Every structure is written in C-alpha cells, then in structure tokens.
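Technical appendix A lists one of the benchmark inputs used to test multi-chain prediction within the project. The record comprises two sequence entries:
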Amino acid sequence: MVGMSDNLAAILPAIIVMVTGFIVLLGDSCLPAWRNNGKAFNPAVTFVGIAVALFFDMTRMGAKSATAFSGAVVDDPFSRISILLLGVAAILAVLLSTTYLENKKLHHGEYYVLILFSLFGAMLMAGSNDLITLFVSIETLSVALYVLAGFARTEERSEEAALKYFLLGAFAAGFLLYGIALVYGGSYGLSHTGQATTNLTEIGAGLAGSGLGGVTVMFGIGLALMFVGFAFKAALVPFHMWTPDVYQGSPTSVTAYMAALTKIAIFTVILRILSVLTPISSVWLMTAQLLAILTMFGGNILAVTQDNVKRMLAYSSIAHAGYIMAGVVAVGAAEGKFHDLAISSTMFYLFAYTLMTIGSFGVLIWLSRRGRDCQTLGDLKGLVKRDPIGAYTMLVFMLSLGGIPPTMGFMGKLMIFNVLLSAGLTPLALCLGFASIISVYYYLRVVWMMCFMEPDRETITEHATESGGTLFAIGVTVVLSLFFGLAPYLAQTLLAPATSILVR
Amino acid sequence: MITTSHFLVLSAILFTTGVVGVLVKRNPIVIFMCVELMLNAANLSFIALGRHFGQVNGQMYVIFALAVAAAEVSVGLGIIVAIFRAKETINVDEINLMKS
C-alpha cells in the first residue's frame, strides 16, 4: 500500500497550484496591504506558484511511474510532460494578462484565482486514470473558464461568450457523464476481477484480454457518448459551434489562455483514453479519421471569410485541433517505434500550437489600447510602419500557424505528416496537406494587411501603456517558435519521455 | 418486479428528454434544467448499476456528480443574471451579437 504522502506527491504540482489559488484568494480579500498592491502581488504570487509547481514537476521527470489514490491518479512521464506544457501556457497567459486587464479596468484578484483553479483542473486531467477523476477535473477546468469568459462583466459580448460556453459546456458534460455511466455498466465482466470499474488501467487490461469480443453494446454506446463530450470540449467539427463566439467575446487574455490550456488538457486525456482502447482500435479509428478530416477542412474553410482576427484565430484553432487529431489517429494506427514517434510528434504539435496561439493572441493584446481592443483586420492595416514589433512578431506567428518554414508550426506539421505516412494513412496525410494550403491564404492575408496596406485612420497610433510582461511573453514565444523550428529534434528529445504512457 | 433494466431504460428516456430539451428550448434556464436532467439520468444509471453489481462505487460517483452539478448551477445562474442585467433579455435567439 502506498502511504498518503506518496499519494500527495503524485499530484504535487496540482496541489501547489491549488494552494496558490487559495493564498491569492484569501490574501486579496483579507489582507488590506495585499489588496492595495493587488496589481503587483496577485500576478507575482501566481507566477511564483506556477513556477514552483513546474519546478517540482521537472524534478520528478525521471522518477518511476506510479499510481496513487487507489489507481485514480497516475503519475507518469506523459502526465508530467503535459503538466509542463500546461504550466508554460499558464505562465505566458499570466504575463500577458496584467497590463491588458489594467487597461480594461478588470484587474481583480479573482482573475488569477480562476486561472490557478482552472490550471489545477487541467493538471489533474493530465494525471487522471479513472473516469470519475477525469469528469471532476474536466469540470473544475470548465467551470473556472466559464467565469473567466464572462470576466468583462460590463461588456455584452463577454457575457454572451460566457453564456454560450456555459450552456454548451454543460451539455457536453451531460454526454460525458452519461457515457461514463454506461461504460461503468458495460465494463462488468471485462476486467479480470469481474467487477464493474471506471479505472482506465483495469479497462485497458480487460480489453487487452477480451479484444472486440468483450465489448458490449452498452460499453460501445458509452464510449461514443464520452467522445461526443470530448469532441465538444476540444471543439472538433461538427461539435465546434460555440468556439468562434466564445473566443471572440471573451477578453483576449482569457482567449489566449483557454485556447491553449483546454486543447493541451483535452488532447492529453484523449491520447490516454485512446491508448487504453488500442486493442479495439479497428472500431474507432475510422471515426477518428473522419473527425480529423472534417475538423481540418471545416475550421480552415470557415476561417477564410472572417474579418475579425480573433474570430479567424478561433476557426484556425479548430483547424489545428484537426491536425492534432490526425496525430492522435496516427498514435492509434502506428505500431512499434512509429507509435512512440507518433506520440512525441503529437506532443510537439501541441507545444507548437500552444506557443503560436498564445503568441498571436498576445500580439493582439500588445496592440490593444486603453478601452479599445485590437480585433479586426482593419486594425492591423499598415502595422509594419506604426508598430514594427507587433508586426514582425505577428508575421512569425502567422507563418508558424500556416506551417511555413523555418517555424515550429512547419516542423510540427511535417512530423505529423511523416508519422501519418509511416502509419499507412496516406489519405489523411494528403488531407492535412490540402487543409494547410487553404489555411495559408487567410494567414497571409493578415501579413498582407500589415505590410502592404496603408492604415485607415490614425486613431490607434498612440503607443500602448508600457507593458514589459506582454512584450516578454511575446518575445519568449517568438524565440521558442523559431528556435524549435530550427532545432526540432531538441524539442522532441525533451518531449520524448511522454511516449511512456503508463496504462498501456 | 422492477429490475435494473427498468432503471436503465428510464434513465435513457430521461437523458433523451434532456438532449431534445436542450436542442429545442430557447430560455437558458430551461435549457439548463434539461442539462440537469441529463446529469441526473446519468446519476440514476450509476445508482442502479452500483446496486446491481453490489458495489458502492456507483453510488459514490453520484456524490461527485452532484457536487459538480451544484458548482455548475451557481456559476450558470450567475452568468444568466449578469447577461440579463446587460441585455434585459435571456432568450438565446436574441443573444447574437457575434455572427459571422
């Protein structure tokens, strides 16, 4: 038996994040000295908390995989890598938030508390090995994000975004929970113990033993409903309707955060669950491929007509979910060393996606002036003359999102393309190529607007409020996207431990 | 004699009612009630299955699901109140500032 301290050690980073959340919550509401200096204290404490959590996460990177809380939570290199990515996304988001929130007069301590609590949920998702742990942690993440989406209380758009996110998110939660209930019922007799279970390890062992023969109708329907829930949360076409409105309406710093965080967390979960379902991959592989193709083309085609950059980036994030889904399909289809390669490529793409999404929303934040968000393509006209820093960094992110070398986005797409080919999924690889070609049009339209158009009006020429944090975050993302674009194998080596998913 | 399958059929009916309700209703409060119906259908399945298998797990899961549902209610009603203050309506057809 493992002791309580071992249990807690397995989720140490998540616990640190949660405790930091409580500290910020209490400090901001109870200590007058803290409250008066909230603008400095809240982000600083949040930053330090996440950094400490990441430090402990990294020191445990080489440790042996273990389960904790009677198998409900797993602490393996895969979850540690995802926790690392989640933490990086959160730190970048915190850096981007401070000045933007001040400009919008939204600088409240609760913002950071909600960031920390949603990060806590996401970190637990990365380590959850039981469907109920999974459900509770997904909802911890989601409920905090519903509030964050509506954080600009006086803006109708923000409230609208929150309402839509909430209704669709709760709808998805219903599918997820009912699916879990059916899987619980259908798992009876599947595992060796002859008990109904929601534990992924036991379900995986049962499936490996029984193969397709052990799958009951109830189990199958349950899995399908669960994946409807996941597809809603990951914004895969045809379950993507909420994404553009929510991303457009939320405060930009929240959009950057949730676009990165939810995608990392949900794809970690999808990878883990599908690796449990590998013995019955013949059933779901076709559906997953179809979802990936629909998502890639759906997101890209809908993005073409958008004039609002935030909305365009929302559709582009849908398309990128499709590319990541293609990587997931490759993980399911590939065998032997290609299987590991597929996992590390998918994780690399998730990392690349995190950097370019946070970066491109970060530039929009950088360009937003007091009381006026930079959102439309018109706002970007002639940017290269008005604000070269914003223009050139945006250029890098647009090239990266479009998959043009020498950026990380290009390397990520190339890796996924490669693993798809080696897994024998040539049609899907070709779809990925065509979808990327469509996407280049609307990314380069932004570049064209920035570089070759004259600005419409001179209303937004005054310089932004000094914002070191925003600039730093953008700088880091630019440097990393270029660096890992040129040295992708370094990143793949860093992410290589992720290939040992414990439950397999 | 009421067997476990009766409970499962009832929960399937409740779940379907909830899904249809979410899709056809236009008032967010009613939509949310339908979501609650979906969650409670799942809870009913959990309890019935747990009883059928003689396990305590199923019934324990319901407590978790209830806690999550309670958190969702408090956040959701807060959002609905906030949007009513901003727009004087909560009809989801009129909440359409952002259209492509």
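The first strand of chain A starts at residue 66 and ends at 68. The beta strands of chain A are 66-68, 73-75. Comparable benchmark entries are summarised in Table A2.
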